[in-house]
Amino acid sequence: GVWRHGWRLAGGHAAVCGGGASERDGRGGAGGGAKLKFVFGSSAIQALDLVDRQSITLISSPSGRRVYQVLGSSGKTYTCLASCHYCSCPAFAFSVLRKSDSLLCKHLLAVYLSQVMRTCQQLSVSDKQLTDILLTEKKEEA
Amino acid sequence: MAEVLRRVLSPSSAAGPEEENTAEAGPPLLLLCGPGSGKTALLFAAALETAGEGRGPVLFLTRRPLQSLPRGTGAALDHLRLQKIRFQYPRSTRELLHLLCSAHEARGPAPSLLLLDGLEEYLAEDPGLQEAAYLAALLLDTADHFSHRVGPGGGCGLIVALQTQEEGDSGDALQLSVLQRYFPAQCWLQPDAPGPGQHRLRASLEPGGLGPRAEWCVAFRPDGEMTVTPWPAQAGDPSSDKGSSSGGQR
């Protein structure tokens, strides 16, 4: 159904967001933003904001394994997996998993946008530190 | 990993040149069944099949050591293959999470297949939706990492077996639907009316849009030997060219 399509739609982020990114050219061009908003709702604007504020960090270790962290607007850091749709934020658990209201949370959308736009911070950590980051991503403590 | 399961289930159609999907891992696959089915035997058969491919080892995760090695389909229990299957027994969800999160720390050849038996036992400890999604996502992420280590032309497949409740409640249904979103390919094992001295299953493979749907009859003899035959095609059923090796859709 639409959910299966939704995962692939979001996974093929270049196909969905590529047009938006090229039309956006910096801060101008509302065309791409409107398309994003149509598909992703109000998360789109918040996600673009996160990208603009350099809130996404790609963390990698010598093993080559990677994970993303996003500094949310509230100041909390959320962890997003690089290989599939998972975010530790409450909105992911509620709107995406439980209610199926949304395809993505704003953090995941920000991650995909930053991949397409090739703009995010990079951080190298040790293999052990990456393990710890993955272990604590399960749920953000209140 | 639908391809591996397909090859396990139809060895005759695996004869002949395996062009495209030989080394490709294929999408992660969820093996779904009720209690008392042959999911462990099928997983083990997939392990043996992959172990014989000359690629990396197979990592088989299960809560408890197998009491006896499933018999499999004929000649496959050769010791060289068995040596390539590494069993690990995470006894709790916490241990499983730790194993997956630290998978990148281990050196040595990356597995070409990651198998998990009994996901339901780990989920039972922590039945929240986010926990289930996290476990599924981490399994995918771990297999993805192994795939990157194996490099192009290879990859690490993922098959996870989940026993579902006969009479689940809506919470179970929601949890299952969340898990299904992470696994594009699924194979359902349903009990079939048993013949004399036999335990039989209908295996229905849905490869997630990457190949035709297919069905097999999996039978277990009293001595444990597993035999697989194509499920008789229904009249007008288009998905029945399993036997052809002339490069049909795979």
Structural notes for this entry:
The complex is a heterodimer of chains A (142) and B (250). In chain A, strands 3-2-1-4 form a four-stranded mixed beta sheet. In chain A, helix 2 (13-24) packs antiparallel against helix 3 and helix 4 crosses helix 6. Residues 1-29 of chain A have low confidence and may be disordered. Chain A has helices at 2-11, 13-24, 30-40, 43-52, 90-98, 106-116, 127-136; strands spanning 56-60, 66-71, 77-81, 121-124. With 142 residues, chain A is an alpha+beta fold. Helix content of chain A is 51%, strand content 14%. In chain A, a hairpin with a 5-residue loop joins strand 1 (56-60) and strand 2 (66-71). Chain B is an alpha/beta fold and 250 residues long. Chain B is built from eight helices and nine strands. A nine-stranded mixed beta sheet of chain B has the order 3-2-4-5-1-6-7-8-9, with helices on both faces. In chain B, a hairpin with a 6-residue loop joins strand 6 (185-192) and strand 7. Chain B starts with a helix and ends in a 20-residue tail after the last strand. Mean pLDDT of chain B is 80; it is low at 11-23 and 239-250. Chains A and B meet through helix 1, helix 5 and helix 7 of A and helix 5, helix 7 and helix 8 of B. Chain A: Residues 78-116 form the SWIM-type domain. Chain A: Keywords: Metal-binding, Zinc, Zinc-finger. Chain A: GO terms for molecular function: zinc ion binding. Chain A: It comes from Equus asinus.
